[in-house]
Design a protein that fits this description.
Chain lengths: 477, 600
């Protein structure tokens, strides 16, 4: 059936029969009739709406029974039961195989410089339901072979036979490429770029020309990314193209690859990040090897107490820092795994560093370390607790690492804002702080209210009672 | 299922029928019994067009999902692969064909590429040595899919990335093609407006395609008066903000794909009397969401804060209707009551579903995290402290909140500040790379290329001017009874929709200055109509505008346009088309690079 249709088209399209076409200017009437027919046929379709659509059954998963994705599952399931090789009687009623050259624009033959006979099939499915979609006139001279670049691009877009070989000189090829770019059709741009690539001597010429044709370049890179042609890609990067796209080279996380990327023309900021990435990977490899050994030998007690969950390789920097705070906290600054060294090397912000150390030490319940983290002496030699994070966040982190109430209490007490302090204290059941704050606010009502919330006969209740009976306090209510 | 498509201002069922017709034609080309092997991604979009029954009528006996290895056995004459033109899928197909070997030499294989065949894929198949096994290689041009009564989508997920990142304008070519199909069915659109580079490209291609058909005049009375083409990058801000309409929130939280949403099943456990159904379903509950469902059509575009009231009102009406049975005395009355019963029961189950969904959403919207996030978003949109490092974002990074959330916020701040100072941008980048891994350099790079992240160049921040001129922030947004589109984001009026609104009245000439600040050209084109086709407009008759969002549109923006259509004095009705329905998360995700997946 298909074939006959194609034949029909050949008949109408071939130049021999050119004397008669539908597009004669004066044929207004027949065209109108056609359009009416098309519209009517659509109406008909719309009117006799399929009844299948009106009543809808829905399976539990909510998909209408009979929807495509539902049916895919169903038939797949039912198929398992009849999973037997079907006896397929050989009946030779099938049509002779179609000429395979129809079935694809062969790009590889194009690369080898072979003749490019392409899909004449592409257009047999022209939409016939509306007049505007009929073929434009330009298509009717199918079998003339001397195409201009514009026509070539158009034919490529329509999936027609076309020969690119006639574009011999570099100039012609580039002209063709420019027209392809102007057509905004990725398919065509890729085809023409590849044609140019494989018919040029040496990559340098192509790379040089692509540099001024960013769109074509993008398509080319995309093609290489999809086909995973790392070699060509690196080649392209080495050629020192100064275009802003610097990332494809970055896809391999392996150290050596990153190292090989170090010399690539990144922007200054990016190249600092690439350098950091490399340094980090290098360190992770060293740390991982040492820790694996230490773990196996059982020399470091910490690995028994808190077995490692996963190797540290390829983890982000902050995760690495956290890991080192767990296992290498007290190492001198000289080692690769010392948290302080990591902080220095990668210029980790104070807040990030602080939050990470805090979380790690709290996880190990090393409260002395936590305490030391905040303590600093002022010029009078007095101990004072300071933090680059708000104490609210500190409490948050501690609480997430299931710190006991005594520890929480200490830090809740350091929250400056009274209201926030009370709400945090209530949330974490730091009764002392609530009580003291109410006392300081001289708010008897609230204190009496709070008395109902603490446990009967507890120390807190006693404390509240004491305060309430204290005649020296001048309550405001 | 498709009835709801024909209720709108424009009968979109015509388009659906055209698509179905073409599908039937392709299936009939492959004579004999068939099995379809599906690229799973395509089942969603195809579901909007056809049901299994249609395929069955055309001798499709089995359907499988595309997987490596041997094809499941099927006693059929034809095997048809329905696939997107992607190389990794070609590998699977080649694998299928090779493993099949000579077992079924009498069998025919076909490929249907959706939406277009690709030379690259065919070459790939040829290199694997299987191209010759295919009897038919064809394409099914699925450009614009009717999604709802007033909504068309190309379901082209990567369109934004391709256009603005990869400089690949293939999706624009499809857009122009789709618009030509649309015009073939609904008449030439006499007036085209546009803003942005991609809009300009599409308009140019449309005009060129029209010239190529010179000589054939479209004789259909135009249904659309105006086409407005809008580049997504004209308004990068809107999709980044959390949508606050009912439908928008469903999409933000659970994700709507191809008109379906998957929800946690707990709240939907059916309690049937007498049945010991204690085990809760573990599979997610899947629901279809469109205007065919009366209640959903009513509440989808409301601000979420107004949904509770609407649901309880509906509940009262339904229970009152059920109570009616006590008043039914005569046989006639009872008969009438019974005849309404199915409708009432459907309404009741619909109400139950949406009450459950609303409960699920409420749990999230009332959480502290949601509130904090929204507060920061609104600070950015009103221009508070957008030039400094934001401590909330900093804390979120330190807590390792999901990267996409961080990126959404940082991008939003950058857009609202027209770029960062170098120091601020560097700080955010370093924090992100250190916390989430250096491989995200690619993603950050992409975001810079697409214009989300940038450093402030000499010129001053023009966002405040844009905000004031277009009234993007409304202090007293009325969520319950809205009088302005800003209700969809509880205060923020989407920029894209303001542009649409101003175009209708008083016209873009009034905002020339602002248009110049936004990226890309703005333009107007006219397509002449044959003399007989000029519409004689009745007094008070509304005009119809097709708004095409190149690079995606959010449900909240759609809600805002529907709101404008319904406004009594607007005089304009909107039909919406887009490359893909998006939200901030899916959008940012489409711009992310996952280098692991590309390791050699």
């Amino acid at each position: 059936m298909m074939k006959s249709k194609a034949d029909e088209e050949d008949y109408w399209n071939s130049s021999k029969f050119k004397a008669f076409t539908f597009d004669d200017e004066d044929d207004e009437f027949s065209r109108l009739k056609e359009s009416k027919q098309a519209v009517n046929s659509i109406r008909q379709l719309v009117d006799d709406d399929d009844d299948e659509d009106d009543v809808e059954k829905v399976s539990w998963s909510g998909e209408p029974v009979g929807s495509i994705s539902w049916s895919v599952k169903e038939t797949a399931a039912s198929n398992q039961r009849t999973d037997r090789e079907p006896a397929f009687p050989k009946i030779t009623t099938e049509r002779p195989p179609l000429n395979k050259s129809q079935s694809g624009l062969s790009l590889s033959s194009l690369f080898k410089g072979g003749n490019l006979t392409a899909r004449s099939l592409g257009d047999t499915s022209v939409r016939l339901f509306a007049p505007e979609l009929r073929k434009p006139k330009s298509e009717y001279k199918d079998f003339v072979s001397d195409w201009t670049p514009v026509e070539t691009v158009q034919r490529l877009q329509q999936g027609k036979a076309v020969s690119l070989e006639k574009f011999r000189s570099l100039q012609d090829k580039l002209l063709l490429l420019d027209f392809a770019v102007a057509a905004h059709d990725g398919n065509v741009i890729t085809a023409v770029t590849l044609f140019t690539l494989f018919t040029l001597y040496g990559l340098e010429v192509l790379f040089r020309e692509l540099e001024s044709r960013q769109t074509a370049l993008r398509h080319f890179i995309h093609y290489m990314t999809e086909t995973r042609d790392q070699r060509l890609l690196l080649e392209l990067l080495r050629s020192g193209l100064t275009w802003t796209f610097n990332s494809s080279s970055y896809e391999n996380k392996r150290r050596d690859f990153v190292k090989s990327c170090l010399s690539l023309p990144f922007s200054p900021e990016d190249s600092a990040h690439v350098q950091d990435h490399y340094t980090l990977l290098e360190r992770q490899i060293i740390i991982e090897a040492a820790d694996q050994r230490a773990e196996r030998d059982g020399k470091m007690e910490i690995f028994q107490r808190f077995p490692r969950k996963a190797p540290i390789l390829n983890m982000p920097l902050i995760t690495t820092l956290y890991y080192c705070c767990l296992y290498h906290y007290n190492e001198s600054e000289g080692t690769y795994s010392s948290p302080l060294n990591i902080r220095q090397t990668f210029k980790i912000s104070e807040k990030q560093y602080f939050a990470t150390v805090l979380a790690a030490r709290a996880k190990l319940k090393a409260w002395a370390d936590v305490d030391a983290l905040f303590t600093s002496r002022n010029w009078l030699g007095m101990m004072k607790k300071r933090s680059p994070l708000s104490f609210q966040r500190v409490v948050d982190i501690l609480q997430k690492n299931s710190a006991p109430t005594q520890v929480l209490q200490e830090y809740v007490g350091l929250v400056d804002d009274a209201e926030l302090r009370i709400s945090l204290a209530q949330k974490h059941k730091c009764h002392d702080i609530v009580i003291n704050t109410f006392r300081d606010m001289k708010d008897r009502q609230l204190l009496m209210e709070y008395r109902k919330k603490v446990e009967r006969g507890s120390a807190e209740e006693k404390k509240i009672d004491q305060l309430l009976n204290n005649v020296q306090i001048r309550w405001k209510n | 299922m498709a009835a709801h498509l024909s209720y709108g201002r424009v009968n979109l069922n015509i388009l659906r029928e055209a698509a179905r017709k073409e599908l039937r034609e392709f299936l009939d080309k492959c004579a004999g019994s068939k099995a379809i092997v599906w690229d799973e991604y395509l089942t969603g979009p195809f579901g909007l067009i056809a049901q299994y029954s249609l395929l069955k009528e055309h001798e499709v006996e089995k359907m499988f999902t595309l997987k490596s290895g041997r094809l499941p056995s099927a006693d059929v004459k034809n095997i048809i692969f329905f696939v997107r033109p992607r190389l990794e899928l070609m590998d699977i197909i080649a694998d299928n064909i090779i493993s099949e070997g000579k077992a079924h030499s009498s069998r025919d294989y076909h490929i249907l590429f959706v939406p277009r065949r690709s030379m690259l894929c065919e070459r790939w198949l040829k290199e694997q040595g299987v191209l010759a096994s295919f009897t038919n290689i064809d394409e099914y041009i699925l450009d614009l899919i009717p999604y709802d009564g007033d909504l068309l989508s190309m379901e082209y997920e990567s369109a934004f990335r391709e256009c603005y990142l990869e400089n690949d304008q293939t999706s624009l070519y499809h857009t122009a093609k789709g618009l030509m199909t649309l015009q073939a069915l609904y008449g030439t659109i006499p007036q085209i407006f546009g803003k942005g580079d991609c809009a300009r490209h599409v308009a140019n291609m449309m005009l060129r395609m029209k010239r190529e058909f010179a000589g054939t005049q479209n004789q259909i009375l135009p249904v659309f008066d105006t086409l407005l083409l809008l580049d997504r990058n004209v308004d990068l801000l809107t999709p980044l903000a959390t949508q606050l309409t009912y439908e928008g929130l469903i999409d933000e939280i659970y994700g709507i794909t191809n008109g379906y949403v998957k929800l946690p099943p707990e709240k939907f456990a059916q309690k049937k009397q007498g049945e010991a159904s204690k085990d809760l379903p573990t599979e997610p509950k899947k629901l279809q969401l469109n205007s065919a469902e009366e209640l959903y059509a009513e509440i989808r575009d409301k601000n979420f804060n107004a949904v509770g009231a609407a649901l309880s009102k509906k509940a009262k009406i339904i229970s009152a209707a059920f109570e009616e049975r006590h008043n039914a005395k005569t046989v006639g009355e009872i008969k009438q009551f019974v005849s309404q019963l199915p409708h009432m029961q459907a309404a009741r189950s619909s109400l139950a579903n949406h009450t459950s969904i609303a409960e699920l959403i409420k749990d999230i919207t009332t959480s502290e995290a949601f509130f904090d996030n929204l507060t920061v978003e609104q600070e950015f949109m009103t221009g508070v402290d957008t030039d400094k490092v934001n401590t909330y974002i900093e804390d979120c990074i330190a807590q390792k909140d999901p990267l996409i959330k961080i990126l959404r916020l940082v991008c939003m701040q950058s857009v609202c500040n027209n770029g960062f100072k170098q120091k601020v941008l560097d700080f955010y980048k370093r924090e992100i790379l250190q916390t989430y891994g250096y491989e995200h350099m690619l993603t950050l790079n992409n975001l810079e290329k697409a214009g989300f992240l940038k450093t402030q160049t000499g010129s001053r921040n023009n966002y405040p001017t844009i905000r004031k001129t277009l009234k993007l922030w409304m202090e007293d947004a009325n969520e319950q009874n809205p009088n302005d589109i800003s209700y969809v984001y509880s205060g923020y009026a989407p920029l894209s929709i303001r542009l649409t609104q101003v175009l209708a009245r008083p016209g873009w000439r009034s905002i020339e200055e602002v248009l110049k600040m936004l990226p890309g050209p703005h333009f107007e084109e006219r397509q002449p109509l044959p003399s007989g086709l000029h519409k004689k407009r009745q007094q008070g008759e509304n005009r119809t505008t097709l708004v095409f969002f190149l690079g995606g549109v959010t449900y909240a923006e759609i809600a805002a346009l529907r709101f404008l259509s319904q406004m009594e004095d607007s005089g304009m009705e909107y039909v919406i088309a887009t490359t893909k329905l998006i939200n901030g998360t899916t959008w940012i995700k489409s711009l992310m690079d996952r280098p692991e997946s590309q390791m050699p």
